[in-house]
Amino acid sequence: MTAHPHGTPDGASAGRPLRVETHGLDVIEDAERKGTPRTLFWPWFGANVSVLGLGYGAFALGFGISFRQALAAGALGIVVSFLLCGFVAVAGKRGSAPTMVLSRAAYGVRGNRLPAVVSWVLTVGWETVLTALATMATATVFGALGWGGGTGTKAAALMVVAALTVVGGVMGFDLIMRLQTWITLVTGILTIVYVALVADRIHWSAVDALPAGPAQRFIGALVFMMTGFGLGWVNAAADYSRYLPRGSSSRGVIGWTTFGACLAPLVLLVFGLLLAGSAPELSQAIAADPIGALATVLPPWFLVPFAVVAVLGLVGGAVLDIYSSGLALLSAGLRAPRYLAALLDGILMIAGSVYIVFFADDFLGQFTGFLTTLGVPIAAWAGVMLADLALRRRDYDEADLYRPHGRYGDVPLLPPGVTLAATAVGWGLVTNTAAHWLAWQGYLLAPLGLGGRTGPWAYANLGVLAALVLAFLGTLSTGRARIRRQEARVPGPAREQLPLP
């Protein structure tokens, strides 16, 4: 198997020297578009093979549901949410630009800045969470080995993890694709060893005895899995498919994106459910330190390899996040080279990681609050983007994606209005106890007869699903005429003749 020029399997220049990627929001030219849809397997698998997937088993059972309910909620949430990523990835090969630039076709060139800001906050939040988890996992392993797991260890671990993440984000696509291939191989092998070592801790009788929960809790677990997996990536789903040739199979793009992203989480979820369901005390410990708690059931000789697999898996996800967060920041209006945007995000990531590692007491509470609050507007954006993509019969006019007076407009009223309305409904149907300043959420639960902020539907997180569906249907029903007018316009001057916003 040879290496693609961008580090993916399929090309012919494995020995190409690494350099900082100069592409930012610009369109990838045809001469640089190589590979096949199956090369998408590597970045998506490498970003989601983290042993954090085992922790999601405990997270799902934490909703008070049975093993079978948690398995169904997890599998459905993972597959459906990553399938949405696969659909959005098609836009990448059709438009050759980053996800949050392609979003301008729906929102207008400058109207797209609002969803770009939300996307930026989400990706910075995710890279911060992953970096903090890698830091805490390293400290836990060092403590278990008697090498010290205190403040000094955490500080050193944070510097190493942050350095790996920031360097990958600054260097860009070429290094990321090469890293993800190796991360996939190393973490995949070591994760299999982990599963083999702790398999004897599974007790089916305990797992099978877990009582079933009501439908509201099942839905809550389902939505949590969707926001924790695919909806956390959907706003970056086209950032890698944009390097594929225009003639690449759309079915292949959808299939390889979904398959690569789903494979590891599905396997890890099943084992995580069995492990957490067998030991309630382990399930509770995962809420405070997901990766570190999983290390406590290992023999000492495997702790160092476990630290390697934990850190590499989390860094694999964080690197993709920092790359996409830099692109989102540029889409939001920052005028700077891509690598400087990634560096700025790295600084924010480090600051957020310091807070989580050294000051936050309840990781799961903070994590859940983060996912539900930002999951609503991202779900609304995804609904608009998916409906807009489904209505288009032609590829994007790449020049007009950068031209406020082109076919896509500057600040159209309808798509942002649909997004804001869907978000308002969504926030009215979720609750967030992780932060007092978000206590206003859930304001529709009582008027709609769902029991209010303390009723049975309070933690079902219906708002994420509502925002996704309302935005999709709203765009599908109102956007057809607008898109037909866009596609009927005569192409304007070439992109090289225009100043790019």
Automatic annotation (TrEMBL):
The keyword Lipoprotein does not apply. The chain crosses the membrane at residues 41-63, 70-92, 129-148, 155-173, 179-197, 218-238, 253-275, 282-302, 308-332, 339-358, 370-391, 412-437, 457-476. Its main location: membrane. It comes from the Bacteria. This is Purine-cytosine permease family protein. It comes from Streptomyces nogalater. It is found in: Membrane. The keyword Cell cycle does not apply. Pfam families: Transp_cyt_pur (PF02133). It is a multi-pass membrane protein. Belongs to the purine-cytosine permease (2.A.39) family. Keywords: Membrane, Transmembrane, Transmembrane helix, Transport. InterPro entries: Pur-cyt_permease, Pur-cyt_permease_Fcy2/21/22.
